[in-house]
Specification:
Length: 182
């Protein structure tokens, strides 16, 4: 099996992403990076930038599948709402380009990459360095978090069907009728 997997760690201040190329049982790093959004005061503008950058990555690298880190449940409802919106617009860019979407919890991603669901960002980055041969550790660990989502998806292999995935808006709406405004 040969495919390109885009992994995204959504965020409203920094969005991390990573792309890997799978050829059979081997993977190699294509690229990883971040989108810094801290200079934008307007939340809607941040969401627009996330959508545009995700679309740009998709158009440049033509990934076959997208893996996203799902928002985790925290105490701050406003933060959760903003993070969910960030994930939603990244997801929308993939759906717009008909790319299958897969979601993984932060714990699942850490478990998949390090063997420990409670691993630190630094531990995830260190393990990724040996898995995909990262030359230089990135300045922001959000990039390795995005890469970790892609690597997690690779490790799920045929089990990826058990994660939440959507092949388009219709399948997303079928699985989430409560998200429609009435």
């Amino acid at each position: 099996m040969e495919r390109i997997i885009l992994g995204i760690d959504p965020g409203t201040n920094i969005m991390g992403y990573g792309l890997i190329h799978q050829n059979g049982n081997t993977i190699r790093l294509i690229t990883m990076g971040i989108l810094k959004l801290g200079s934008y005061d307007n939340h809607a503008l941040k969401l627009k930038k996330i959508f545009e950058r995700t679309l740009g990555i998709i158009e440049e690298y033509n990934p076959d599948e997208m893996a996203l880190e799902a928002p985790f449940f925290g105490k701050n409802v406003q933060s959760m709402l903003k993070l969910g919106r960030a994930q939603g617009v990244a997801m929308a860019a993939g759906l717009y380009k008909d790319i299958p979407i897969f979601e993984y919890s932060p714990k699942k991603i850490k478990q998949s990459v390090t063997g420990n669901g409670n691993a630190s960002k630094e531990q995830v980055a260190a393990m990724l360095s040996s898995i995909v041969k990262i030359d230089k550790s990135p300045k922001y660990l959000d990039a390795t978090d995005g890469l970790a989502a892609a690597v997690c998806h690779y490790f799920q292999g045929s089990n990826a069907k058990t994660s939440t995935s959507y092949s388009g808006w219709k399948s997303f709406i079928q699985d989430n009728p409560d998200r429609l405004k009435k």
